[in-house]
Amino acid sequence: MRIITHTCPACGTVVAANELERNRVMKCPGLGCQEVLRFEDLSEDAREHFREHWDRYQI
Amino acid sequence: MKGVLLSGGTGSRLRPITHTGPKQLVPVANKPVLEYAIEDLKEAGITEIGVILGNKGRDEIQELLGDGSKYGVDITYIVQGNPLGLAHAAGCARDFVGDDDFVMYLGDNILKSGVTDLVESFEAGDYGAGIALQEVEDPQAFGIADVDDEGNVTQLIEKPDDPPTNLALIGMYVFSPAVFDAIEGLKPSWRGELEITDAIQDLLEDGYEIDSHVVTGWWKDTGKPEDILEANRLVLEDRELKTSGVVEDGAETDGRIELAETAVIEDGAVVRGPVSIAENTTIKRGTYVGPYTSVGANSTLEDIHIENSVVIGDSEITANGRIVDSLLGRGANVGSAKELLPEGRRLVVGENSQLKL
Ligand SMILES: [Zn+2]
User: Least CB-CB distance to A59: which of B59, B76, B84?
Assistant: First the structure.
């Protein structure tokens, strides 16, 4: 299973794509970091993959 | 070598304690379980640590560990979110790990001997992975490894009916970056998770050698209240305990006692070690604190007889009675009902609490 992550450019916290997908737009979960992370920050390819296999990333 | 420390999970077996925080922060001998793991990694020379966060307790864990500098390590946080399995957690660490080898450590595990031997054994050969094993009495209940004479793993079997060995996998692994391709190739198991044992099995089938290291000292998964009490017992038994606080004249003490600088054992109290008493805690006259008890910070104990128990902290325990084999959450108070009518116990008990009266 492909595991997609995104790294916050401000604090370096790594966020799994399933988190981004669930929230679409979210404040970075890094403590005290004000950066806003978006599902759209992922590459087109990653987003496409994620939409196609959405169910695998749920539990 | 890097470290990947898993700190997710719901902690459901430790309710109500985990209603207010993650299980990895429950203290054992007055230190959060997770700090033992950080220290073990540091001792093995691993200073770059990725801490995997689940859906619970993200802020509390970050508040405790910070950037890692207070432990002499450098921490990167990795938010896994949904609990999609250990192999998914490892896969989320791919960018962090890069081309390095890494130790994967379950943050609610605590073990006597640390991870140094496991790491050294892995580094002594050319392995795809290394796993820590421990002999168990009921191998049917565990993931079991079969190993050859050199200690190389030949097979992994989940809860076998006819176990080839009694060597169970414990939550401690070393991986080469080859594991990431194995993880990419995995499909979720029947329980919807990416299983780390499947990834190891795939490495084996791809021709990688898998090292094993048998852990001989104690190892504890602290998932349940009785495990916390046992881990507390084991750590107090092993650890050097230093009395820095005040023991008043007329207090009766024996055995090894860890007493924080601002803690007091008053005249007329009895404390028998091994015991750990944290900052700003007072053991008052008429109290007995028996072996294998840890009392957290900012607490007062009076009249009570307590032994083999963990008091997390911020508690007032002033009843005249006996408390044994107990785990008391933060801010839990136990007073006396002696003068109150009608006679009887008075309880305000949180969800999922367990009492034996
Ligand atoms: Zn951030």
Answer: B84
Distance from CA of A27 to the nearest CA of B (A): 13
Give tens-digit pLDDT for B65-110: 999 999 999 999 999 988 889 999 999 999 999 999 999 999 999 9
For residue B82, give the nearest of A13, A31, A59 by CB distance: A59
What is the span of the domain harbouring residue A27?
5-57
Q: Which two tokens mark B136? A: 């168990």
Q: How far apart are CA B165 and CA B303, in angstroms?
A: 51
B245: its two tokens = 């606080």
Tokens of B52: 């995997």
Chain centroid offset of residue B153 CA: 27
State the best of B2, B75, B79 to mutate against chain A, taking most chain A CBs within 10 Å.
B79
> Which ipTM was obtained for this model?
0.93
CA of A15 to the centre of ligand 1 (A): 9
Distance CA B56, CA B42 (A): 25
For residue B30, the one-letter residue type is N
Task: Judge whether B273 and B233 are in contact, CB under 8 Å.
Answer: no
Which residue from B minimizes the CA distance to A55?
Answer: B192
Q: Which domains does chain B have, with CATH numbers?
A: 2-221 (3.90.550.10), 240-328 (2.160.10.10)
- Give me chain B's average pLDDT, please: 95
Count of domains in chain A? 1
- pLDDT tens string B129-184: 999 999 999 999 999 999 999 999 999 988 899 999 999 999 899 999 999 999 99
Residue B236 per-residue DSSP state: H
Q: Tell me if chain B has a CB within 8 Å of the CB of A23.
A: no
> How many Å separate Cα B134 from the centre of its chain?
17
The answer to whether B95 contacts A56, with C-beta atoms less than 8 Å apart, is no
Query: What's the CA-to-centroid distance between B109 and ligand 1, angstroms?
Result: 28
Which pTM does this prediction carry? 0.93
Q: What is the C-alpha separation between B235 and B301, in angstroms, rounded?
A: 22
CA distance B155 to B174: 17
